[in-house]
Amino acid sequence: KLLLIGSIDADHVDDAVKKLTTLQKSKAGPFDACFCVGSCSPAIQKHAMPLPVFIQDCSRLSKDESTGTAVAEKEEDDDEEEELPKGVVKLNTNLFALYGGDGTNNQQAPLADIWTLTIGKTQMVVASVPPHARLDSDAIKSFQEKLTHVSYVGCDLLLTSEFPQGIERLLPQLQEGAVVGSFDIADLALRARARYHVSPHGMFYSQSNPFRHLKSASST
């Protein structure tokens, strides 16, 4: 059971943490994890979370504004703590950044990447693309190679900071001919073959039907 939330600015960090705590203790909970898709204030790093929270857009989290501690600098984990996949960086208790690459201080910026994450008792394949990603940029070069690898068969979640081009057909409130999405993200989304593609937008909202496996006469 997952929670999906959008951008969190500095004025709403405390409210977001309180809301997550309330939801986790509510009749709807408990939830196995939360994915924050969109821009996130560095102030979030000061908070321990009531459930695992993964931040998709790490572009503003290069340094903690109050301590100057680099985000990609991992804390020493207890021996019993599960080792995190490469490129997933621990910021605080139950708070993680999908930084991509090797996730070290030598890395200049977040990179698009794919991980297999343990969510509750389930293994989920999660792909994340940083903001302003373009098909010819170094930020997604390795990501595109992984999408074409013979072992890649699709992902459960694709997280992007921008809508894919073409989504405007599902937004009737837009004027005819308006374009709100990114061609590059649309191309990546097509190749990523995700069950769910999640991206934030401050003005528009669209939700597709739940994913269903196609019926097949045979199974393997």
If you had to describe this structure to a student in words, what would you say it looks like?
With about 220 residues, this protein is of the alpha/beta class. Helices cover about 15% and strands about 20% of the residues. It is built from three helices and nine strands; from the N terminus they run βαββββββαβαβ. The chain has helices at about 15-25, 140-145, 185-190; strands at about 1-5, 35, 55, 90, 95-100, 115-120, 120-130, 155-160, 195-200. The strands form two sheets. The chain has a five-stranded mixed beta sheet, with no helix packed on it. The chain has a four-stranded mixed beta sheet with strand order 6-7-8-9. α3 (about 185-190) links the parallel β8 (about 155-160) and β9 (about 195-200). The model is unreliable at about 65-80 and about 215-220 (pLDDT under 50).
What is the rounded distance between the termini? 27 Å
State the order of secondary-structure elements, H for helix, E for strand: EHEEEEEEHEHE
Oligomer: single chain
Total number of beta strands: 9
**What is the rounded Rg?**
18 Å
The amount of beta strand, in percent, is 15-25%
Q: Specify the biggest β-sheet.
A: 5 strands, mixed
Secondary structure layout:
Layout: E1 2-5, H1 13-25, E2 33-36, E3 53-55, E4 88-92, E5 95-98, E6 113-119, E7 122-129, H2 141-147, E8 155-160, H3 183-192, E9 194-198
Parallel strand pairs: 1-2, 2-3, 3-5, 7-8, 8-9
Antiparallel strand pairs: 4-5, 6-7
